[in-house]
């Protein structure tokens, strides 16, 4: 009988979502507890699980995505174990307990379908970048899985007067109650970010967290639209 290599056998299920290694997500699927996941992210599953690409609920919300960019989603339903990944990116699992999170679309891997979600324009950014910046907001009771190009850091803004500045290409997610504003920096243009033209930073203030990845690869990021 085949014996799995030590450290590579599936771990017992203890939660709805868990990391299986650093770059894989394991989801315990149950009938009636559907999941929305990035299309094409399924790498393996056990049991009976069905997939519906671009379900009606996703199409309805996608109409508000005026930039035309986002994460194509599929609905997963059934019983079993589902394994998801996104080209070897690190996976970050968050259990929302009534609060919310604002996520860059390219960093969204999966979330419970019963959560409240939608696409919103980040206020105060249009004057810096044409149409502005759009993010996916998710709130309620349930699980969310994000991806990060490398192990991310979580910055606690602390609620003081000091602002936290982040390169847009390195931004993964933040608490939606934080205040956000854009900042141009000509002097820092050659030091911050890898894009052409003016250097932009996002300034966060208030009480909440900001999740930042150690990557500024703009080839697969939700960019400012001018």
State the end-to-end distance. 60 Å
Derived structural class: mainly beta
* Average pLDDT, all residues: 79
Number of strands: 15
Low-pLDDT residue spans: 1-9, 194-198, 218-226
Could you characterize what this model shows?
With 226 residues, this protein is mostly beta strands. 3% of the residues lie in helices and 46% in strands. It is built from one helix and 15 strands; from the N terminus they run ββββαβββββββββββ. It has one helix spanning 56-62, and strands spanning 17-19, 25-29, 35-38, 42-53, 73-84, 90-103, 108-112, 116-121, 134-148, 153-156, 164-166, 171-174, 179-185, 199-205, 209-212. The strands form two sheets. Strands 1, 2, 3, 4, 5, 6, 7, 8, 9, 10, 12 and 15 form a twelve-stranded antiparallel β-sheet that branches. A three-stranded antiparallel β-sheet has the order 11-14-13, with no helix packed on it. Strand 1 (17-19) and strand 2 (25-29) form a beta hairpin. The termini are far apart. The relative contact order is 0.17.
Short description:
The chain is mostly beta strands and 226 residues long.
Index terms:
single chain; about 230 residues; mainly beta; 12-stranded antiparallel β-sheet; 3-stranded antiparallel β-sheet; 1 helix; about 5% helix; elongated; disordered C terminus
Describe how the helices and strands are arranged:
Elements: E1 17-19, E2 25-29, E3 35-38, E4 42-53, H1 56-62, E5 73-84, E6 90-103, E7 108-112, E8 116-121, E9 134-148, E10 153-156, E11 164-166, E12 171-174, E13 179-185, E14 199-205, E15 209-212
Antiparallel strand pairs: 1-2, 2-5, 3-5, 3-7, 4-5, 6-9, 6-12, 7-9, 8-9, 10-15, 11-14, 12-15, 13-14
């Amino acid at each position: 009988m085949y014996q799995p290599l030590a450290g590579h056998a599936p771990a017992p299920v203890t939660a709805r979502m868990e990391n299986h290694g650093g770059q894989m997500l394991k989801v315990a699927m149950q009938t009636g507890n559907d999941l929305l996941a990035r299309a094409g992210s399924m790498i393996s599953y056990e049991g009976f699980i069905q997939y519906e690409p671009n379900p009606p609920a996703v199409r309805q919300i996608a109409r508000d995505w005026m930039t035309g960019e986002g994460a194509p989603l599929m609905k997963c339903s059934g019983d079993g174990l589902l394994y998801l990944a996104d080209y070897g990116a690190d996976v970050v699992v968050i259990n929302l307990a009534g609060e919310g999170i604002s996520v860059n679309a390219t960093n969204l891997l999966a979330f419970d379908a019963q959560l409240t979600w939608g696409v919103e324009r980040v206020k105060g950014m249009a004057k810096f970048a044409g149409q502005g910046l759009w993010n996916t907001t998710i709130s309620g009771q349930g699980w969310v899985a994000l991806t990060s190009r490398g192990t991310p850091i979580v910055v606690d803004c602390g609620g003081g007067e000091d602002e936290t500045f982040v390169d847009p290409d390195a931004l993964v997610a933040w608490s939606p109650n934080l205040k956000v504003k854009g900042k141009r920096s000509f002097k820092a243009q050659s030091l911050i970010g890898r894009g052409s033209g003016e250097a932009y930073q996002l300034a966060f203030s208030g009480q909440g967290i900001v999740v930042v990845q150690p990557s500024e690869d703009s080839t697969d990021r939700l960019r400012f639209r001018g």
